[in-house]
Amino acid sequence: MSTITNHEISLQSAIDMTTHYRANRPSNFPICETFEKEAIQKLLDTTGCASFRIYYGMKADDQVDAILVAADAEGNDILPPSAPAVSGTDDPVILEDGYRCPDDCPPSSSLNS
């Protein structure tokens, strides 16, 4: 795992990168995806979580989606058991199905328009 501890970039770098991405993105890739705070908090509250990882997956309709998982301090994915979880358990979660733009886009900002 990399030893980078600061993932911050400037607003201008983010504008440049998102502008370049929008100009070149394949039509099945989203501009962005939005996840509820409660879902992200549940992911971060996973026992042993030191970070989270974003995978990209493709649904049957060829739409690309972000898939978020917790990772431990050694960089290992923290995954739920293969069998479906019982309601109310504290099993790790995998997040997907963020609010996808397009069609469910956030208000206009310098990062998306």
Protein architecture, described:
- With 113 residues, the chain is α+β, with helices and mostly antiparallel strands.
- The protein has a domain at 28-101.
- It is 19% helix and 23% strand.
- It has helices spanning 11-24, 37-44, and strands at residues 32-34, 51-58, 64-71, 77-78, 94-95, 99-101.
- A hairpin with a 5-residue loop joins β2 (51-58) and β3 (64-71).
Q: How is the main sheet built?
A: 4 strands, antiparallel
* Class derived from helix and strand content: alpha+beta
Rg from C-alpha positions?
Answer: 16 Å
Poorly predicted parts: none
**Global mean pLDDT:** 91
What topology emerges from the helices and strands here?
Layout lengths: L10 H14 L7 E3 L2 H8 L6 E8 L5 E8 L5 E2 L15 E2 L3 E3 L12
Antiparallel strand pairs: 1-6, 2-3, 3-4, 3-5
Comma- or semicolon-separated keywords:
113 residues; single chain; alpha+beta; 19% helix; two-stranded antiparallel ribbon; 4-stranded antiparallel sheet; globular
Task: Write a brief structural summary.
By secondary structure, the protein is of the alpha+beta class.
